[in-house]
Amino acid sequence: MTTNDEQTQPQEPSFRSDVTVELVRGAASDADVLFAARVSTAGEQSLDQAVATRDDAGADAAHAAGEHGLAKRDRGLINFLMRDRHGSPFEHNSMTFYVQAPIFVFREFQRHRIASYNEESGRYRELRPVFYVPARERNLVQEGRPGAYRFVPGTDEQHATVEREIREQSVAAYASYQRMLAAGVAREVARAVLPLNIYSSMYVTVNARSLMNFLSLRTKRDDAHFPSFPQREIELCAERMEEFWRELMPATAAAFDANGRVAP
Amino acid sequence: MTTNDEQTQPQEPSFRSDVTVELVRGAASDADVLFAARVSTAGEQSLDQAVATRDDAGADAAHAAGEHGLAKRDRGLINFLMRDRHGSPFEHNSMTFYVQAPIFVFREFQRHRIASYNEESGRYRELRPVFYVPARERNLVQEGRPGAYRFVPGTDEQHATVEREIREQSVAAYASYQRMLAAGVAREVARAVLPLNIYSSMYVTVNARSLMNFLSLRTKRDDAHFPSFPQREIELCAERMEEFWRELMPATAAAFDANGRVAP
Amino acid sequence: MTTNDEQTQPQEPSFRSDVTVELVRGAASDADVLFAARVSTAGEQSLDQAVATRDDAGADAAHAAGEHGLAKRDRGLINFLMRDRHGSPFEHNSMTFYVQAPIFVFREFQRHRIASYNEESGRYRELRPVFYVPARERNLVQEGRPGAYRFVPGTDEQHATVEREIREQSVAAYASYQRMLAAGVAREVARAVLPLNIYSSMYVTVNARSLMNFLSLRTKRDDAHFPSFPQREIELCAERMEEFWRELMPATAAAFDANGRVAP
Amino acid sequence: MTTNDEQTQPQEPSFRSDVTVELVRGAASDADVLFAARVSTAGEQSLDQAVATRDDAGADAAHAAGEHGLAKRDRGLINFLMRDRHGSPFEHNSMTFYVQAPIFVFREFQRHRIASYNEESGRYRELRPVFYVPARERNLVQEGRPGAYRFVPGTDEQHATVEREIREQSVAAYASYQRMLAAGVAREVARAVLPLNIYSSMYVTVNARSLMNFLSLRTKRDDAHFPSFPQREIELCAERMEEFWRELMPATAAAFDANGRVAP
Q1: Structure confidence at residue D10 (pLDDT)
Q2: Of the spans A180-194, B29-43, D142-156, which averages the highest pLDDT?
Q3: What SS3 string covers D178-243?
Q4: Which DSSP string corresponds to C195-250?
Q5: Which residue of A has its CA nearest to B113?
Q6: Is-catalytic flag, A240?
Q7: Hey, is the C-beta of D136 within 8 angstroms of any chain B C-beta?
Q8: Radius of gyration of chain A (CA)
Q9: Cβ contact (<8 Å) for A44 and D100?
Q10: CB of B245 closer than 8 Å to CB of B28
């Protein structure tokens, strides 16, 4: 009756407690910040200066250079820009990530408007039965008031309840989805029953300034000047993205931390 | 055990096939387009000119004025701007809508980045058991290829299947959600089982240029220059928003139609 | 030879030391912040709650209400949003300003991308001979280093020099512009000789969140958490815009000040 | 009196009729469009598919591949996205340009808000005396009406007038600027007399979607669906940027042309 193999050979539901974040392209380096910032004062020489930062360095300069290969004055400039919130020099770079996460994470993610998104479509394809279930270390109990929640560990019983409820509902919902597809109902209609913990996938492209804004809101850190209360699951994405970014732009990331993780 | 009345008096699930769209504030008129456009050529007099459009009108001008009270040359200017895609004069206005729709609609909605959103939070409050189920007139069967789908009516049997599956899954999912809440599990965790057809609510603020872009992509019209294939449920929102907008900016809306519904 | 009266009756150059800022439309109030913020927790009741804030108030509540008519808990909510940088509730409003200022001010102004602009065009009209010259109280001498300049008063001699040089160059440049126009040269070519201190005019539309970002960068205040070093002439615009905004959204403006004038 | 060598050794004014556009980094390829678009339908396999487009190609596929190395179906997908205005897949890439052009060009350039800019600052450095003067082939005479101007060649006399006026004013203005600087006046004040034809320099970073929007408005082409009337000097920038972009994304550029140069 149907020629769609996927429908005649339904996959078994599977469960995950993690997210996937891959760096598809990282066109970003600390030097990008330097040339952009120095055009203010150096005009036509700023690119040369940025490139020359290390090449011209003699023995003394090399000695003065920090762990990241930048001269001390380069790191000083980046720190100054971060501290006084000169944000535009952090925009001349680009990172594309591939992310797999539950839909409730993507709902929060895509509220960040200074980014480019392309996501798997439940209208164009049959969604895979991969569902999120919290790991044992995920705090389950919320305390405090709106805007300042704290999360504390759940009991074994609570974890068992969550595990059972989420697994059962996910399996039941996907079977319902399959029955509607088998009956010839459009994917965009049938998906209505799928739960918020089903995984989706997307590409997201940001620059470092936008990423720092994302990190300031989606990670919870004691050294942050402004408090944030991200849901743990989007924080998992943010932490992975931050790791990739720190590799690409170590001096920028260090300055971000040193200045209270406030996006410039 | 809990002081939360909502949890001790759970609501019964209810089902809707429509969306709610209210205009909270419409600070928008055709005259806004005129003063913004005329500053290019009139400079310091553009505001006076825009305001004077009708006041100065003598008998002849009044006769020449169209149904919407604008002089013919005013409507001509708006049409010219639309046709040749001078978009910025359509930005000096603002409309705030209150929208209730299923989450799968909000997922599409919030991909439009030139807008302001504030939405009900499943982290901060217990979500209400209101679910979407397609009406009898909603086409259920998808034909064609990705990027150019057509939708045709479902059979009675298909409608019965969809109605039954969606209702059963919604009720079961909400009961599961309630059991987890009753067990002391955080709302943000328990909501994982809720389906994409649960209703949410939000405020969205846009200007006319952004709204036209939204309408060009989220309504399907034969008189559109570029084809669009919106999911019917977001089109319901778009149609309601367009009605409010047409009341506020009739000459702009007429020019939008007359020029193939291409956002300038 | 020409039918353009403006060219046959050239205006005399005039000089100003101030800027014009008018509020064309202010669709903005503190209550807008409340309904947008409360949708997170109140969902479908947020608009009613926002509207009812004052209506429902009995004698005690009225007594508790502050100078701006908001209940204490309303002002508390706005302060909380500002302090913890929940920015989106400050976007559901709109202000349109008409601004006249020198081109060097507009150059800085239009770098702010979250705003809508329409400006007088030197391609479409002959620019008026109105030029900026610093007032006696404008500090003329710059001290310190890039990124942290201080300005101190100029001597009488310096002021006389600036006055003379700017007036002479402005008059000479405008005469040159007129000669090229009289020779049939296109306005967009002839304007090349006009100086950066010639006035232009524009409409700019922003929301309160964007405006706070503008104010944080374009005003210099001792109570600001992050230092800013605006050029005095754009600060004149910013100060006027802030006055209008404070009238419209007094509780929001008070919270902005109370929290270090950091845009949320 | 001053330790600033630049002021004691003033440069001689020089004149140019061209612009400088360099590609600082081009992190952009047609394949970026493919993986971003295919995630809609292919989900987790889209990156593999995009990469495999050429690797998997057997003899037949290689034969079918066009001049740019993409398979026919890849080029077909890009053309479909362009034609039906699916814009987001064109955003996952980044190009940084270094541009030198007169300030009146930058004024138009920076109105494009979906881009990142860092520009030389007249507050932070003494501007160089490099000025724009139209080349002999630059049309000097404007005909028609606002919104639809045509430009036709000037006479020898008109060119002589323009050349003389612009050179004289530029030299006089720069001398005035120097006199104010020599008197100890701040750069940001003294620059008020500098004309709009003085050169500045900046870095600008865009993605292909934003660039296509820029090109659709800032180049004048007979094969464009929507008419544009760019000033010739910004068109010079746009043409150079387009050349670099065509090298990086030839199939995308071909589809842009084939579909009326309408930005998707």
Answers
A1: 60
A2: A180-194
A3: HHHHHCCCCHHHHHHHCECCEEEEEEEEECHHHHHHHHHHHCCCCCCCCCCCCCHHHHHHHHHHHH
A4: BTTBEEEEEEEE-HHHHHHHHHHH---TT-SS-----HHHHHHHHHHHHHHHHH-H
A5: A113
A6: no
A7: no
A8: 23
A9: yes
A10: yes
Predicted confidence pLDDT, tens digits, chain C (264 residues): 333 444 445 679 999 999 999 999 999 999 999 999 999 888 777 777 665 554 444 444 444 444 456 899 999 999 999 999 999 999 999 999 999 999 999 999 999 999 999 999 999 999 999 999 999 999 999 998 777 788 999 999 999 999 999 999 999 999 999 999 999 999 999 999 999 999 999 999 999 999 999 999 999 999 999 999 999 999 999 999 999 999 999 999 999 999 999 999
Residue D63 Cα, gap to closest chain B Cα (Å): 26
Q: Amino acid identity of B53?
A: T
Least confident of A2-16, B129-143, D227-241: A2-16
- Which residue of the set C191, C209, C218, C261 is catalytic? C218
CA distance linking residue C201 with residue D84, whole number of Å? 38
Closest Cβ–Cβ partner in D84, D88, D147 for B84: D147
CA A58: distance to chain centroid? 39
Which segment of A215-229, C48-62, D208-222 scores lowest on mean pLDDT? C48-62
Question: Is residue A97 pLDDT above 70, yes or no?
Answer: yes
The answer to whether A20 and A100 have CB atoms below 8 angstroms apart is: yes
How many angstroms separate the CA atoms of C234 and C19, rounded? 9
b/e map C168-188, b = 16+ CB within 10 Å: ebbebbbebbbbbbebbbbbb
Residue D21 one-letter amino acid: V
**Rg (Cα) of chain D, in Å, rounded?**
23
Q: What is the pLDDT of residues B143-199, one digit of tens each?
A: 987 777 889 999 999 999 999 999 999 999 999 999 999 999 999 999 999 999 999
Which of A41, A46, A85 to probe the C interface (max C CBs under 10 A)?
Answer: A85
CB-hemisphere CA count at 13 Å for D79? 12
Distance from C-alpha of D258 to C-alpha of C72, rounded to nearest angstrom: 61
Closest C-alpha among B137, D124, D79 to residue A43: D124
A44 backbone φψ class: left, alpha, beta (φ>0; ψ -120 to 50): alpha
Rounded Cα distance between A186 and A124, Å, is: 10
Quick one: angle between helices C208-218 and C232-248, nearest 10?
140
C2-5 contacts, C-beta under 8 A, 24 or more apart: C2/C182, C4/C126
pTM, to two decimals: 0.93
- Overall average pLDDT of the A127-134 stretch: 98
Sequence-ordered list of residues with C-beta below 8 angstroms from that of C60, at least 6 positions apart, any chain: none
Eight-class DSSP state of A10: P
Q: Are B222 and B104 in contact (CB under 8 A)?
A: no
- How close, in Å, is residue B6 to chain D by CA atoms? 39
ipTM score:
0.90
Candidates D44, D46, D121; nearest CB to A41 = D121
Residue A197: name the closest of A128, A145, A96 by CA: A128
Count of helix runs (H) and strand runs (E) in chain A: 11, 8
CB D149 within 8 A of CB B84: no
**Helix residue ranges, H only, chain C:** 5-8, 30-42, 46-55, 59-64, 72-83, 103-109, 156-182, 187-190, 208-218, 232-248, 250-258
| Chain center to CA of C215 | 8
C113 and chain B in contact, CB less than 8 A: no
Length of chain B: 264
Residue listed under structure tokens 């049309």:
D139
Residue A28 in 3-state DSSP?
coil
Q: Is the pLDDT of residue A2 over 60?
A: no
In degrees rounded to 5, what are phi and psi of residue B132? -90, 135
Contacting C residues, span 185-244, partner chain D, CB-CB under 8 Å: 185-197, 231
Return the closest-CA partner of residue A205 out of A94, A87, A86, A89. A94
